[in-house]
Automatic annotation (TrEMBL), chain A:
This is Uncharacterized protein.
UniProtKB/TrEMBL annotation, chain B:
It comes from Autumnicola lenta. It comes from the Bacteria. It is found in: Cytoplasm. Its main location: cytoplasm. The keyword Oxidoreductase applies. This is Ferritin. Iron-storage protein. CDD domains: Nonheme_Ferritin (cd01055). Residues 9-154 form the Ferritin-like diiron domain.
């Protein structure tokens, strides 16, 4: 399994043999197909952390359901910010890998 | 490390995001035309109403075309939410002016995605979008033709009725 990116709380991996990805949520590791990884990315990108500070999201938590509601995560503001960093970093590394793997 | 992303996805991830935004714009456009059709219907402008019903359907077809393209290429298309549709207009002329502005906005958006495709070398999507580039030029021209009718005939009294009668021909 190859490490793609590590943020403060989370890590992402690519598993070539299984043709899938893993995200380590520090107490639980979730296996994701590429399609599920895209859905995860979309969910995380849709979150506006500003809502945690302007009173719109008074609880300061976000609920994420992954892999067709197989997993549920309840995350606070710091974890959400960190997760967004993880998603950006992961897709940045995947793009870099695509560039390096492309035939000259 | 294997390039799993490329194996699963034939389009660039950022381009996929832009195409999903374009889906939202096309859906918004389709709903806006539906509101215009309703206004025309209520004001006894039958031909204009039909024109905007057809326009609404056309925008929806554009949206579906992009939607299917994303999914066919391994990406995930998201069904759009539509909000903020204007239902109040002062005149038929205003409606066509808004329609032209709307088409120009869509054209610019398509062009921006094409430029981005060139930047990230996504030739597949660029090739797909070229149809939209041509289509948008035609859409803009149609709306301009409608506005030219107001320049020619004015906006008062019988002129409005004559313009409505001519609307079916502006696509030709």
């Amino acid at each position: 399994m190859k490490l793609l990116f590590t943020s403060k709380y989370f890590s992402s991996y690519q598993y070539d043999k299984g043709r899938c990805f893993y995200v380590d949520f520090y107490r639980k590791t979730v296996k994701l197909s590429f399609c599920q990884l895209l859905a995860f990315r979309q969910q995380v990108k849709k979150i506006n952390p500003e809502n945690h500070f302007n009173g719109e999201n008074k609880s300061g938590i976000e609920i994420l359901m992954l892999c067709n509601r197989e997993h549920i995560f309840i995350l606070d503001t710091l974890e959400i910010l960190d997760l967004q960093e993880l998603v950006n970093g992961t897709f940045g590394m995947l793009e870099l890998n695509s560039l390096l793997s492309a035939p000259a | 490390m294997k390039d799993l992303v490329r194996q699963k996805l034939s389009i660039h991830v950022e381009i996929m995001d832009l195409l999903n935004k374009q889906i939202q714009k096309e859906a918004h456009s389709s709903s806006a035309y539906l509101a215009m059709a309703s206004w025309c219907d209520h004001n006894a402008l039958t031909n204009s109403a039909k024109f905007f019903y057809d326009q609404s359907l056309e925008e929806r077809e554009h949206m579906l075309k992009i939607f299917k393209f994303i999914n066919d290429n391994g990406g995930t298309a998201y069904s759009p939410e539509v909000q903020g549709i204007e239902h109040d207009y002062n005149s038929l002329q205003e409606i066509f002016e808004v329609a032209l502005d709307q088409e120009i906005t869509i054209t610019k958006s398509i062009h921006n995605i094409v430029y981005k495709c060139r930047k990230v070398q996504d030739l597949n999507t660029e090739n797909f979008l070229l149809w939209f580039v041509t289509e948008q030029a035609e859409e803009e021209q149609t709306m301009r033709r409608a506005l030219e009718l107001f320049d020619l005939m004015g906006t008062e009294g019988l002129a409005l009725k004559f313009i409505d009668e001519r609307i079916p021909q502006i696509r030709e």
